[in-house]
Specification:
Blueprint (H helix, E strand, L loop, with lengths): L3 E6 L5 H12 L2 E3 L9 H6 L1 H25 L4 E4 L2 H14 L5 H15 L7 E6 L2 H11 L9 H17 L4 E5 L9 H16 L3
Parallel strand pairs: 1-3, 1-4, 2-3, 4-5
Helix pairs in contact: 3-4, 3-5, 4-5, 4-7
């Protein structure tokens, strides 16, 4: 049975690492955020107010296509970040911080509402909960130049919105507190995650 598994979490929470780990373990197809090919990301972190709307529409369009591809496919796909995070966390946060105009935000939100009527949530959402020190450490470790401009208050606001979204999420959900976990280098931590994913998936069939 082909499923759509998605991993959600703030910037630097470890989504891509866990996507690779679970894809390898289960032989799932991966759907990754391709930041290197994103035409707006560097400009956005240099001038968020100018490029916020462009970036969010780009994400909305690409993730919508990804969902269509996943549902057409015959294999289980694990997805790095969801379309819902853009709509419920990133876009409203930019608007609240004065980095996206009300006109642009309302336009974006209306577009998402139209798209959301044509998609279904993932069969399982895995949320990686991480505190600011953990996020900052992992962002620094991966050394992406454009992420040097990320502000701490930006990460903090995103975390608050993630927690609010997750507290009301209605679908199948698995939450991992990753502050004290290193599933990329610690086999025991990886095994803990796989064990919980396994038990949750068994309840989906």
């Amino acid at each position: 049975m082909a499923m759509h598994i998605a991993i959600a979490g703030n910037i630097g929470a470890g989504k891509t690492t866990l996507t690779h780990l679970l894809a390898k373990h289960y032989d799932w197809e991966m759907q990754l955020e391709d930041m290197d090919d994103n035409p707006y990301i560097s400009d956005f972190y240099e001038d968020m107010q100018r490029w916020s709307f462009n970036l969010q529409v780009y994400f909305l369009n690409t993730r919508w296509k990804h969902i269509q591809d996943i549902r057409k496919g015959k294999k289980t796909v694990i997805q790095d970040r969801t379309i819902y995070e853009d709509a419920h966390i990133f876009a409203p946060n930019l608007h609240a911080m004065g980095l996206m105009s009300t006109r642009d935000y309302e336009n974006y939100h209306a577009l998402f509402q139209n798209i959301s009527q044509q998609i279904t949530p993932p069969d399982l959402l895995i949320y990686l909960r991480a505190g600011i020190p953990k996020l900052v450490h992992q962002i620094q470790m991966r050394g992406r130049d454009y992420e040097d401009a990320i502000r701490l208050d930006y990460l903090k606001r995103l975390n608050e919105r993630y927690e609010a979204w997750i507290s009301e999420y209605k679908g199948k959900l698995l939450v991992f507190n990753v502050d004290d976990m290193d599933f990329s280098d610690n086999p025991d931590h990886a095994a803990q995650i796989i064990q919980q994913v396994e038990s949750t998936l068994n309840g989906l069939f």
